[in-house]
Each structure stands twice: as structure tokens, then as C-alpha cells.
Prior knowledge:
heterodimer, A: mainly alpha, 2 domains, two-stranded antiparallel sheet, 23 helices, 2 strands, B: mainly alpha, two-stranded antiparallel ribbon
Amino acid sequence: MNLDKIQVNACLRSGWQAIDLGFLMARAWYRPLFLAGAIPALICFVPLLILFLEDPFWAGFCAWWLKPFFERVPLYVASRKLFEDEPSYGDILARARRLFTFDMLPLLLWRRLSVQRAFNAPVSVLEELKGSARAKRLRVLHGKYSDVAMSNQFVCFCFEMIFTIGLVLMFLFFTPERFFIEVYDSYDELTLAGEWIYTLAALIAMTLIMPFHSMAGFSLYLNRRIELEAWDIEINFRSLANRKQRAGGLAAWPLALGLALCLGLGAPAGVDAATTHDRESARELIEEVLRGADYGQQKTVSKWRFKEWEDEDEGDETIPEWLIEFIEWLLRNGNWSDGAGNLALWLKFMLIAVFVLLAIYLLKRYQGPLGSLVRRERRQAAPEVLFGLEVTPESLPEDVTAEVRRLWLDQAYREAIGLLYRASLSRLIDRHELAFRDSHTEAECAALVSERGIESLSTFFDELTRVWRRLAYGHQLPPGEVIDDLCRGWQRELSDAVD
Amino acid sequence: MLDTRYRVEIPGGIKLEAQVVGPIPRFFALAIDLTIRGVLFFLLSLAMIPFAALGAAELGGGLYLILLFLMEWFYPVLFEVLWRGQTPGKRVLGISVINDDLTPVTLGPSLVRNLLRVIDFLPLMYLAGLVCMLSNRRFQRLGDLAAGTLVISVRETAKPAAIENIEPLAPSTALLRSEQTSIIDFLHRSRQLSEPRQHELAAILDGVTHEPSENGVDKLHRIGAWFLGVR
């Protein structure tokens, strides 16, 4: 047993947590554990089923009774895997005789119905104790974990049941109708086919659950040993001793280095010493800091909260007054032959109304593709400002081209082209529903426009973009006729008159 | 290394830890909750007697069905949201539902995980949920996976007995935090360990305590007391 290689985190756990760890072990090593249990089981099931061809329940019962037999190899495999040791098939075969025979008779006779089998198994399989030595050992181990061990047995039994019935149901659900199998006959008793289905399902369920059950018991056993023998402390002590041993070899180096530092860097050390304070001056300094703005502030915060509810006495066991009054009110206010029906009808309409409102609210709240049906507003996706230019329709003058020409004549060239450009963007967003984002550049906007495939529009917009960029970034004035062209283009492509 | 521990690192490099809880404790918690709900249904049907006596059996029946529906679907949600992630059954078992970032469970995730019980229940008695839990490292059923929740253990560990009559001793060498903890553990758990085992453990640290094993145990106890703050 090499504790350094242990594959689980050895620490003290409660019994329940130990069982959970066992389930994790079973999960991690499920394939080998399942095979180690299922192969002997299969070798056993087949002859039994053949033997009880007409009476499969008995085969199932015998197989179930032999279950401790199949749990041995998985436990051995797990005990090896726990210390990072893969047992080969040869190892298992060499060990198989001992595993299958050691102290097996009592286990199959009077100890078969023990409710803590999985917890006790490691004492027989791994410690190889029997008789009074085993009893003594178990007394030490059991302690406070008996009830957890029993819970494990009970719940795993329930899981087997759930799996069995679940498997049968799934089988019946998914069998095509023409292969219909009569599980129950006309007297509501199981047919032979039904018995077969149930037996096979039970055997499968048993084999599937087995690793979890025995690992939970094994983990509980491990937990008890960790507790009794302080494995976790041993692991930590060993690593501490190793660390000190390694450090011991290197101890001379830090010492020499430290000495060199002290000698060589004496001056800074002296400076440090000068800035240290004695007790009195340090206290003054601290108080000064505490008086400063960062500390010692007071802030008044007011907010609403519920007053404490006063608990009423709960000794009153009669029907509360309000309930009686409510029922009486209901009875008074209505002809009960159809009154109750009316009330229920109202309730129904109210509920429907609530659901409809809720649905509308949710659609509005989480606008997906459906949400746009309810609410269609431009502002949701489109930005209001692109490259620092306002592009909302409200920000534009009534007659854009006239304004542009006026600005141009006033020699406000930047404003003129800027107005034309943002007016175009605004119209493109509004009328062509282009999804500009504020992260887009001018060139990307132009590319988006040409993706629309409207030849004249994209030619116009490309030209406008080119002119705007030259003016905005390059300070190059376009010739006057270009402006006329652009204004005509704007009127042609984007002005209201087009529609 | 296999462990039931679940770890989350929050901003600032602080690591939070919790122990996830497997199917067996949760089975019992569910059984307790089902029993409580059964009793509540029974009491509810008794409460309908006044309705029948007043000649409004149909009204009573309707109300009964509505309450039944609400209780069946919202009993766990109500408790989980208002009672720090615990239904009564979970409280008995000392387990609790929590978001997978280890924040308290809120209405949304709780609703999702409990409404999806229908799926976990299929084809009967939570078989789907069980299979999902067994194939999941954190024992989450489908509802948990959808809601991003976990079931963790919240039972407090027992407080160790007080230290008495031990002269503290400062360790002669610097020790890491985990090493300090294990020496404290050694002090606390010595009573459960057999005498030879104590010596065996102390002998491992011969090179650190510089004492033969007989005195090594005492010396480790004294160092442990020092780490616990006894002066």
C-alpha cells in the first residue's frame, strides 16, 4: 500500500460524503469494474436460465442470491486501481480462486441477508480475515457508519427496482406494435414471456448497479480506515518530510546569498532603518491617517425595508373566521346551480387574460425574431450617431438639398457635405433598413450599401463617401459641380419625392 | 484525483469550495419531501369537509385541485428560494441547492430545475434523473444541468475538542499552511489513533522535530497547540 499514489483525495468525510465518493469511484472506473462483475455473472446466468427455462423467476432469484460472489472481483480490481495499479487479466485469474472461495460459504448462507454487505466485504476480500478475527475487526470498523452502510444497501436495492421496471417499460414502449408481446394474460397475471422480460431486466439492472453499490461500501470502509489510521496526516507528513529533506540539501545556498546581500546592499538597508518609527510616533502617524478623508467618514443612508412581522399565536385550531365568512359570502352571492360555474368561468377568463398579457410582456421583453412582430422601432438597432454625425431624421432640415446648396454658397463646405452625408445615412437606415452599427467605418457602410445590389444607389453613395472622406480627413475641397451632381443624385435616390 | 469537492474561483483569486452530494442522500431527501407533501394533501382534503358540509362540494373540489396543482409544482421552488436552497427533506439531510457559481439559488434557476422534474421522472421514479446523475461528475440531474444548479452538502463539521494542558512550542522551522493544518489535525485526532500509530506518524517527522518518536508525539502536539494560538 503506497499512500503517495492513492487516487482519491484522502480526507476525513462524513459517511454520506464517503458514499458519494464511492459513486464517483464507480463512475471513474466503471468499465473495468462492470466487466469484472459482469463476466462471472454472465457465466453464471446462462446455465441458470437454461436450467429454469420454464420458470425464469427462479433463475433470477438464484442469480440474485449469488450476488456476493460477483462482487468480489470488482472490489479486488478497485483496491488495486486505488493505488494506481492496473491489475492484468493474469493477476486476476491467478487470484480468482482465492477471491471466489475465501470465506464464501457463510456469505452465501447466513450472511447473505446482511444489510451492510458492501461495507463488510473489504474485510474478507482485502484483509482476508474470517471467524472471530473478522468479527472483532468489524466491531472496530462499524462505529457510527452502520446506518449509512444500511442506507447504501437499501437505496441501491431501490435503484435496482427502478432500473428493472424502467427497462421493462422502455422495452414495451419501443417495441413495434406488430411484435406485441403479451406481458400480462387475461387474468392480469404475468405470462411466461412477461416473466422472462422481467427476469432479464432485473439481471441487467443488478449488474449495472453493482459497481456503484460495492464502491460505495468500499469507500465507506476506506473512510473509516482513513479516520482510524490518519492516512491524510501520513500523506501530509511525508510530503513535509520530503520537502525539508530537499530543502536541507540547498540550505547552504540561501544563507550565503543572504550574507552577500547584507554586505553588498548595506546602504539601502540603512535607509530603511531610518524610516521606521518607534511605538509612539507610529501611533501618532496611524491616528493622523485615520483622521484623514479616506477613513472616519460618516454617511447616512436611508432606504425602505419591511417592519418585523409579529408572529401571531398559532394555538388556534378552529377553522379561521375569514374562511367561514368567505365561503358564506360565496354561498350568498350566487345561485349555486350555475353560480359556481360562473365563478369558475370568470376565473378561467382571468387566467387566460393573465397568460396573454404575460406572453405579450415576455415577447416585448425578450425581442427575438418574434418580438419584432410586436414592436417595430427603428431606434432599437440603429445608432443615433455615426462617426460623430447625428443621423436621426429629426436632426435633418426640411429640404436637405436646398440647405446643402445654401451652406456651400456660404463657403461652409464641411457642413454642406457633412449634412448631405448624414442625411444619406439617415435615409439609408430608415428607408433601406441598413443595419449600420456604430463600430462601422465609412468604407464598411459603403460596402453594406453596395451589398443591397441597387446599382445607382451604390454608385451615388460611393461617390458621396469618397468626397466626404477627402474633405473630412484630407481637407481636399471637391469642385463645385460635384456638389450639384451629388445633390441631384440625392434627390434621385433618397429624397422623399421618390416614393 | 477523485474527490467530491467542487471548486469555483471568484475574481480576486479567492477559491470557494463545496462538497457535491450524490444520489443516496438526495433519494432520502426526496422521500421525506414526498411524505410531507402526502400528509399536506391529506390535511387539505380534510379542510375540504366544511365545503361539503355547506353544500359547496364542487367549489371545494375545484379549490382542492388548484391547491394540489400549486403544491405539486411549487413546493420545492418555494422552499428553495425562501429557505436558502433547502426543502424540509434537504434540511434534514443537511444538503442544499445552489447555483453552480456557488451563489444562492434564485427564483429562475429553481423554477427551471423543478419544472424539469417531469423529464427527470421519466419513464418512472426519476430513472432519467438517476442515469444523468450517475453519469455526471457533479451528480447533476437534467434539471440541474439546464438550470445550472448543484446540490451541495451544508452540514457543519463537528467542532474539535478544546486543547488543555499542553505547553505550546514554536516550531523551529517554517511550515506551509497545509503542513500546519495537518499537525493541528494530528493533535485533534490523536485520541482516535492507536498509540503505536501515533508513534509511527511522529516518526515520519523525525527529521523535522529532531526527536525520537516517543517524545516526537508530544512535541508535535505542542507545536499543534502553538499553531492553534495557545501561548
